[in-house]
């Protein structure tokens, strides 16, 4: 299992494609129109679709950046050719931040605790946390820091590449203008690489902490608190590990898509990379099952009325089949599908099961929210959910495609070839994460 | 089992150049022991004496000699049981999960970690027997119908525990044994007399043929894949001993991953605690380098963060719940009778490991040794806090009570460390504590040196 990173990585881009951009743009427009239309028809349901789609797309974008961060921290060599693919999620992060802002206008229709605060003795005790000004400020600051740091991490990874892509055969105007933007204050190739390496290495672990913390807040505020008597310490980890799993899987999906675009890409995202991506997809599928089961069995066994209410609501006549579908698609189907060696390596089979996982995760996020706000007699799932989702999908596909066609698909700069030499470049007291706070 | 590459190996072990150096250095450890070893061993034998005396005294007088009584029916014994099961985790983590993740730094430490796992489970397994008091009835836990066709209660997490821990013991013992076979054969080839006979039996006729290596590699990777879910499952089941009941402070959904992370945390700390003296006593500086300790320290830091996340979310959600019993349980932890135990836990597990962010500390072996001891203490107290503070104040204030561990309980707890040390010391003398064959894989293969350009051309 040798991981030879070639000393010269070819500069390859996802070819620009007007048709695909039009498709992504059309998705956005259709989704936006659907949202506006639905807002007039049934604003509550429109907002549930909006929030759950935001939860899903921000999760996979942030999750894939975190996948890049995690493999960076452990100095992984195997993913040298798909590292940039994971980083591509960062293109959606600024958009995710903007899309969060309208959610701050939500009121008593979305947050049941607003009305309950007047009468409910238990909810009153939570007033210090469950109030709109604090909710807005913690989400605003949290998203700003998390998405900001995520984007900055990817900027640091892309910047040293700019010195190596100059004069590459596939250069065009867009690429050149972004190169000019990203290379302000250029210190020279070697110095840039050392500086990026060091900053990313210092930032990585901090980003992991911020990720766990902020994603936990997202999960509590936009999903858990919708049943204000219910709480589960597993909810945060379930949410952010699901997002990480989505990030790994979406990296796998983009990787097999990119392979069809150029021979060099297809050669370098080889059997080894696909096998490893497949193994990680499988491993986090199992991990999702583990977290889900660990939460479920404690609630089931404890049988406390206020605690099982959350499960009961999701397992009764109305939502039972939906929940069963989610568990099958999140766990049983990909578990059986991906357990062998071949399905992990054959792009078509892997792509099939990875797509199932993406849909499953999308349904799972909806299932965290919608049942809590569901009114008796209403349909549990309508065509508006995917239609409004198109708005997010269009933006996600468009931004990631833009990223992969503006910056090299395979990171040209490969510090993990020999990280020791980069560490040695630094003065002794600047080495390692200690540099942030040691003075 | 090609785990590493030659480049990586050369980086990992800069002072070891030749394959026979490895045999010499490692097998040297199995020859006549020094005074240090005998002194430690003598101490452990005395400690085991204390352990057995206290236990026999409890069997003779009855469980009343412990401090256990209503409402605190679980005390130091269960605390120590969970502690040792936790310690047992890093062995399988290092040998199975890090193997599957192809982390090359595991090679020098995994044998010691696996041995630690086996002995820690052996130690942990004694505590349910000690705890039940009438140990002669312990076989009731074994699942078979008794004369009235009654089975043990499968709905009880305590019975799940029996399965989880025995499965874990079996798999980790087999895994440990399998990994030693080629090394025992190497030891056999050098030994004489009784030792040679013993090693011959253990080595199962290993000759190091291609065919044998092929089977060995296959078996190893399959066992690694089988053992990986066990790392998660065992301590999850142990956590459910608590989480399944509705005692405030126990009934939390995060318990399974939180216990697993804590187990790995304490296990890695124990590996550091054990390998630092091992390295010193046997002069293994070339094999257990600062890089290995750096990696272990990072793993320790990472798991410490997970554990601290769990603490924070438990405290926060206890407040957020708005439920009085839940709120009281966590307030009582911080400021109640057992506040000192909780703060010991928080300081040792949450604050002391913060030092591991600094590379200078990760590279200082004495500092790591001290931190690892703090973590061991902190993780013992974590279980003590969970067990005792939750039970002593449950729902009904009229049923509240204070638990004070008796001298018998404390002797058995302290003695268990010596019992564990006793086995570990024997292990360092009987089996190669560092995996010879895996180290060799990462060293540059033996090549004839080029004599001169002409000679090479003539060839």
Task: Give an overview in words.
The complex is a heterodimer of chains A (439) and B (459). Chain A has 439 residues and is mainly α. Chain A has helices at 18-41, 43-73, 83-87, 93-100, 112-116, 121-124, 132-165, 173-182, 189-222, 235-259, 263-268, 271-302, 305-315, 320-338, 342-345, 347-373, 384-406, 419-424, 434-437. In chain A, helix 4 runs antiparallel to helix 7. The radius of gyration of chain A is 22 Å and the shape is globular. Mean pLDDT of chain A is 91; it is low at 427-439. Chain B contains 18 helices and no strands. Chain B has helices spanning 6-12, 19-28, 35-61, 76-87, 89-100, 110-131, 157-190, 193-202, 210-243, 255-282, 290-321, 324-335, 339-351, 359-362, 365-392, 407-430, 436-442, 453-458. Chain B has one domain: Formate dehydrogenase/DMSO reductase fold (Up-down Bundle), CATH 1.20.1630.10.
Features:
A: 439 residues, mainly alpha, 0% strand, B: mainly alpha, Formate dehydrogenase/DMSO reductase fold
Short description:
The complex is a heterodimer of chains A (439) and B (459). Chain A has helices at 18-41, 43-73, 83-87, 93-100, 112-116, 121-124, 132-165, 173-182, 189-222, 235-259, 263-268, 271-302, 305-315, 320-338, 342-345, 347-373, 384-406, 419-424, 434-437. Chain A has 439 residues and is mainly alpha-helical.
The main sheet of chain B comes to: none
Rounded mean pLDDT score of chain B: 86
Beta-strand content of chain A: under 5%
- The overall pLDDT of chain A, averaged over residues, is 91
DSSP, total strands of chain A = 0
Total count of helical runs of at least 4 residues of chain A: 19
Low-confidence stretches of chain B: 1-12, 454-459
- Order of secondary-structure elements of chain A: HHHHHHHHHHHHHHHHHHH
Give the CA-CA distance, first to last residue of chain B: 33 Å
What is the count of distinct domains of chain B? 1
Q: From the 3D structure, determine the CATH topology of chain B.
A: Formate dehydrogenase/DMSO reductase fold
Estimate percent helicity of chain A. Answer: over 70%
Calculate Rg of chain B over CA atoms: 24 Å
Largest interface, C-beta closer than 8 angstroms, per-chain residues: A-B, 41 and 37 residues
Structural category of chain B is mainly alpha
The CATH architecture of chain B: Up-down Bundle
């Amino acid at each position: 299992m040798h991981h030879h990173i070639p000393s010269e990585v070819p500069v390859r881009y996802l070819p620009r494609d007007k048709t695909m951009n039009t498709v992504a743009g059309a998705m956005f427009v259709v989704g936006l129109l659907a949202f506006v239309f639905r807002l007039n028809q049934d604003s509550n349901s429109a907002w549930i679709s909006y929030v759950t789609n935001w939860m899903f797309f921000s999760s996979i974008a942030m999750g894939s950046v975190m996948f890049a961060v995690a493999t960076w921290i452990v100095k992984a060599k195997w993913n040298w050719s798909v590292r940039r693919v994971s980083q591509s999620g960062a293109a959606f992060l600024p958009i995710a931040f903007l899309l969060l802002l309208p959610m701050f206008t939500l009121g008593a229709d979305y947050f049941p605790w607003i009305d309950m605060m007047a009468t409910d003795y238990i909810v009153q005790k939570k007033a210090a946390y469950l109030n709109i000004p604090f909710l807005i400020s913690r989400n605003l600051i949290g998203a700003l820091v998390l998405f900001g740091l995520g984007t900055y991490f990817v900027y640091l990874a892309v910047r040293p590449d700019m010195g190596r892509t100059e004069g590459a055969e596939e250069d065009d105007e867009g690429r050149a203008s972004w190169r000019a933007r990203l290379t302000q204050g250029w210190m020279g190739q070697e110095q840039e690489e050392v500086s990026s390496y060091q900053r990313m290495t210092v930032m990585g672990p901090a980003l992991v902490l911020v990720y766990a913390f902020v994603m936990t807040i997202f999960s509590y505020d936009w999903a858990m608190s919708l049943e204000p008597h219910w709480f589960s310490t597993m909810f945060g980890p379930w949410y952010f590990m699901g997002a990480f799993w989505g990030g790994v899987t979406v990296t796998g999906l983009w990787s097999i898509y990119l392979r069809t675009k150029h021979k060099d890409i297809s050669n370098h995202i080889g059997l080894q990379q696909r096998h490893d991506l497949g193994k990680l997809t499988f491993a986090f599928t199992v991990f999702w099952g583990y977290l889900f089961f660990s939460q479920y069995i404690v609630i089931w066994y404890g049988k406390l009325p206020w605690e099982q209410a959350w499960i009961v609501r999701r397992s009764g006549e109305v939502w039972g089949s939906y929940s069963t579908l989610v568990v099958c698609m999140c766990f049983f189907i990909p578990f059986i599908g991906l357990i062998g060696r071949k399905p992990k390596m054959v792009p078509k089979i892997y792509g099939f099961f990875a797509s199932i996982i993406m849909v499953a995760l999308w349904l799972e996020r909806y299932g965290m929210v919608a049942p809590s706000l569901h009114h008796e007699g209403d349909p549990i799932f309508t065509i508006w959910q995917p239609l409004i989702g198109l708005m997010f999908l269009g933006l996600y596909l468009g931004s990631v495609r833009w990223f992969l066609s503006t910056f090299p698909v395979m990171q040209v700069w490969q510090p993990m070839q020999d990280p020791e030499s980069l560490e040695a470049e630094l003065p002794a007291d600047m080495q390692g994460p200690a540099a942030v706070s040691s003075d | 089992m090609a785990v590493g590459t030659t480049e990586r190996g050369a980086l990992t072990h800069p002072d070891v150049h030749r394959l026979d150096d490895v045999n010499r250095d490692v097998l040297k450890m199995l020859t006549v022991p020094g005074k240090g070893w005998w002194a430690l061993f003598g101490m452990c034998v005395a400690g085991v004496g204390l352990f057995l005396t206290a236990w026999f005294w409890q069997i003779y007088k009855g469980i009343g000699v412990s401090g256990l009584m209503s409402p605190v029916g679980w005390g130091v014994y269960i605390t120590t049981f969970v502690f040792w099961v936790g310690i047992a985790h890093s062995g399988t983590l290092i040998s199975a999960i890090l193997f599957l993740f192809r982390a090359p730094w595991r090679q020098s430490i995994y044998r010691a970690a696996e041995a630690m796992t086996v002995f820690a489970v052996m130690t942990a397994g004694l505590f349910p027997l000690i705890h039940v008091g009438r140990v002669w009835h312990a076989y009731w836990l074994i699942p078979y119908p008794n004369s009235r066709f009654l089975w043990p209660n499968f709905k009880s997490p305590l019975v799940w525990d029996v399965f989880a821990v025995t499965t874990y013991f079996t798999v980790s013992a087999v895994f440990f044994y399998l990994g030693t076979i080629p090394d025992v054969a190497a030891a056999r080839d050098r030994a004489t007399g009784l030792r040679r006979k013993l090693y011959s039996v253990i080595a199962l006729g290993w000759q190091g043929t291609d065919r044998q290596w092929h089977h060995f590699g296959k078996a190893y990777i399959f066992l690694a894949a089988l053992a990986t879910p066990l790392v998660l499952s065992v301590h999850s089941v142990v956590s459910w001993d608590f989480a399944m009941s509705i005692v405030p402070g126990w009934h939390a959904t995060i318990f399974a991953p939180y216990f697993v992370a804590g187990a790995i945390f304490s296990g890695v700390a124990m590996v550091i605690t054990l390998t630092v003296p091992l390295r010193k006593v046997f002069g293994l500086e070339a094999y257990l380098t600062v890089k290995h300790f750096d990696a272990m320290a990072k793993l320790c830091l990472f798991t410490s963060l997970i554990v601290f996340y769990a603490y924070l979310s438990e405290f926060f959600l206890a407040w957020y719940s708005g439920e009085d019993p839940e709120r009281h349980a966590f307030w009582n932890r911080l400021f109640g009778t057992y506040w000192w135990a909780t703060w010991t836990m928080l300081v040792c597990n949450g604050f002391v490991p913060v030092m591991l962010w600094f590379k200078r500390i990760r590279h200082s072996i004495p500092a790591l040794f001290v931190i690892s001891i703090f973590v061991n203490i902190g993780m013992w107290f974590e279980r003590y806090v969970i067990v005792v503070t939750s039970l002593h104040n449950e729902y009904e204030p009229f049923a509240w009570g204070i638990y004070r561990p008796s001298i018998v309980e404390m002797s058995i707890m302290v003695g268990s460390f010596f019992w564990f040390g006793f086995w570990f010391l024997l292990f360092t003398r009987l089996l190669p504590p560092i995996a010879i064959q895996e180290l060799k894989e990462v060293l540059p293969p033996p090549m004839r040196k080029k004599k001169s350009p002409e000679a090479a051309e003539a060839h």
